[in-house]
């Protein structure tokens, strides 16, 4: 077993600079590392987002990847990004003593007042029997720095929200809020976290555009259902569920 005790049943290894913490965690997972290990780096030289996008990862921000071996059905595993984003939002709220109240944008963003604070990137390995052998949850939080005009939407950092913290402090807070969330997910899936998630949902009842493989779809964001799917009300009045894509709030 690798790492030192982080608390709440998690372990930690730390590096100064890596390509991507997800790559390190993935290698360890493939070599049999038990779940519960966070790999953290001060900076990443090729941090990534979803769909091959890059993630700006300067020193002062949190870049960490958690190895999990989820025991729920593989179709549900993607909902861990919703649950981890919820845990992160709770951790930030607690660290700020209630002054910062993050919202959640389906499926993987944590926002403050419409600006992106953090993102989650899930990567999984198959077990050859239709299941998931390992999952790596990459978590990037803008603690000290946000990219500003370098990206095509609004971003923010904890520092910009008036919260001074080290990446390690944010990770410790996240570990504390993540443990009960993971246990609840393990017992009841996303359905058990849904009410808490919706209480922080950004854009409920508002017009959104969902960008996805078959082209953009516009509608009113009505719900995220018990399976974690996004429910949009289309112009026809029809309610349609989506399991992947990117929500852009109008
Ligand atoms: C995400 O992707 O939001 C997932 C980000 C996951 C990063 C963590 S850091 C630890 C671990 N190791 C990794 O290599 N990755 C994970 P996505 O929803 O695709 O958003 C990516 C987009 O966000 C980019 O295309 C940029 O426009 C924008 N972006 C890049 N850096 C950003 C930052 N620091 N803050 C806010 N937005 C950023």
Computed CA radius of gyration, to the nearest angstrom: 17 Å
Give me the secondary-structure category: alpha+beta
How far apart the termini lie comes to 47 Å
Helix content: 10-25%
DSSP, total strands: 13
The ordered H/E elements are: EEHEEHHEEEEHHEEEEE
Record the SSE blueprint:
Elements: E1 4-7, E2 10-18, H1 21-30, E3 37-44, E4 62-68, H2 74-77, H3 80-95, E5 103-105, E6 109-112, E7 115-126, E8 132-141, H4 167-188, H5 194-199, E9 207-211, E10 217-224, E11 230-233, E12 239-242, E13 246-249
Parallel strand pairs: 2-3
Antiparallel strand pairs: 1-2, 3-4, 4-8, 5-6, 6-7, 7-8, 9-10, 9-13, 10-11, 11-12
This protein binds biotinyl-5-AMP (BT5).
Report a brief summary of the structure:
The protein is of the alpha+beta class and about 250 residues long. It has helices at about 20-30, 75, 80-95, 165-190, 195-200; strands at about 5, 10-20, 35-45, 60-70, 105, 110, 115-125, 130-140, 205-210, 215-225, 230-235, 240, 245-250.
